[in-house]
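SAMPLE LOG
Freezer: B-3
Tube label: C17
Construct: single chain, 552 aa
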Amino acid sequence: MGFQDLLHQAGGQGRFQILQMVFLLISNVLVQMHIPLENFTAAIPGHRCWVHILDNDTISDDGTGIFSHDALLRISIPWDSNLKPEKCRRFLHPQWQLLHLNESSLNTSEPDTEPCVDGWVYDKSTFPSTIVTKWDLVCESQSLKSVAQFLFMFGMLLGGLIFGHLSDRFGRRLILRWCFLQAAIADTCVVFAPSFLVYCSLRFLAGFSTVALLSNCVALIIEWSVLRFQAMGMTLVTCSHSIGHIILGGLAFAFREWHTLQLVVSVPFFVLFLSSGWLAESARWLIVNNKPDKGLKELRKAAHTNGIKNAGETLTMEVLRSTMQKELEAAQNNPSVYDLFHTPTLRKWICLTAFVRFAISMLHFGLLLNIQHLGSNVFLFQVLFGIISLPGSCLALLAMNHIGRAGSQTIFMFLSGVSILLLTFVPQEMQTLNAILATLGMGTSSTSVTCSIAHTNELFPTVFRARISGILVITTCVAAALAPLLMTLAVFSTHLPWIIYGVFSILAGFVVLLLPETRNQPLPDTIQDVENKRKGLRKSKEEDTCMKVTRF
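STRUCTURE (predicted):
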């Protein structure tokens, strides 16, 4: 746990850390845009069946020239329950008699209808083209859009698990650069996909690399930061996520064609891949993985960039070995995944943090995926979501520094849960109050996510940090997939999904209190560090108990 001393000898939080953090935060902004990207590239525009009498440009029937477009639409497409044209059915034959029926006699007979056998006509006023219009993912095929989104999330699941293990074994920098290249190729080739199957396969590969990019950016920021800047680093990470949402809303508004938008947010990955060559590997990871010579080299590079003179004399192998003696001895054991779950303390902490992350993510995505209830302007609400999250990230920093990681999560998750539960008691007619409660829930859930990420990265040892991040990403992805499924329970009660979101959030707030506080604590590097921390906590509790008994 003496790595902090080495960091201070290398200049602390200097120019090197700032430059590396700026690059990683820019990367985070770009990666974050790809998660909700299909809100726009796979948007479902208004549509109806293609009708010969309306949509055949070569038609020369003089008899139709006297009728308006609305009249021809009325005789060709049946109305739904809201008195709007059906999206998936058309009349088998034009129903001319409907032009002479009044409103009270619309249901006197049921003309024969058929599916849209000749295709669809789409409203291109908002989105000139999307993957939905390219492959007709509407009506009976509308569920295929969800399949594409599911495969992206499934890619995130597998990527978090596999790349998390590879990052702990081969290093953060190598896996990060590989994932930049994989994301660049997969997301750019999506534009040229000849079929929906190919599109889904490429989106799966893109999702596979997404989690590794996010988790390794976080790991490099945390592992190169001194103690008092770690919470700020995590706050900046979540701020970059919010900025990504805001920029995506603006880009989607500017580039309505899905091909163009996809290229605009994908091609920069090639630039990031080429630019990432100067990134430094985590010196902490190198040392605890029995590569002290390479770790010393990275520390000297950081010291030189930070303006430390004679770094070669102050940062020597002897100093490193004396400072990191316990970590280097533990590195000889080369811990495996078995050790991760065999250690009772780590096993308990993983289960607790996984439940907390699951509860937070389920509420967060439950709000995000139902934000359309606030209005129909998807561009505005994409930007609004990012704006709402920004002050939450700043508030998280203040709370973590003054209250602590665990206490902050408890407060914000309790506020999230209560605001969502209150939504169930507010009538739909009170739209302003509903919007305020939903905004409060979204803001506090974003703040809870920030606190949770900072807490878990400071809780687990360096040798397992990327793998545990991968496990927690899996729980996040499961929650993200489950959140919209819970909305199907609305057929039994419109309040039931929201009650589940709220109750889980409040329950997770109390579960957090079972985890140790990490504020102003050095990052653990080995399993032994975790065990020492546990013994220290137990000893302090015993001392407190003895003092209370003595006073009595």
